[in-house]
Design goal:
Blueprint: E1 7-14, H1 17-26, E2 34-40, E3 56-58, H2 62-75, E4 78-84, H3 89-100, E5 105-108
Parallel strand pairs: 1-2, 1-4, 2-3, 4-5
Helix pairs in contact: 2-3
Amino acid sequence: MKRSSKKILLVFIESTPYISRLIEDGFSYLKNELDIVFLTKNLSQDWNLQPCLPNNQFVGSKKAIFYLLVNILFKRKYRLIHVAGWSHPFILSLILLSRFLCLPVVVESDT
């Protein structure tokens, strides 16, 4: 089966040891097909982690979050969006935007 040239966007609130390990070990064969976004660094505690893949990024500022949403809207380079959680304003906006763009969204939640 031919793979799409569009990527998969993974959005996490923060990088944690178990998420980093999942990305390094579980998704290593997809590393060229993934864009990984962490909204914050060390939100719940000081994890002191190094980036796990070269194509991940920490967003951090509201301006960068807005830019990322606009980028998703106009470039349409994703075939699937995965979000961890749903209560962060950016993630809620991303879910709604994805619905508008007919992009499939997978929501990972512990509630």
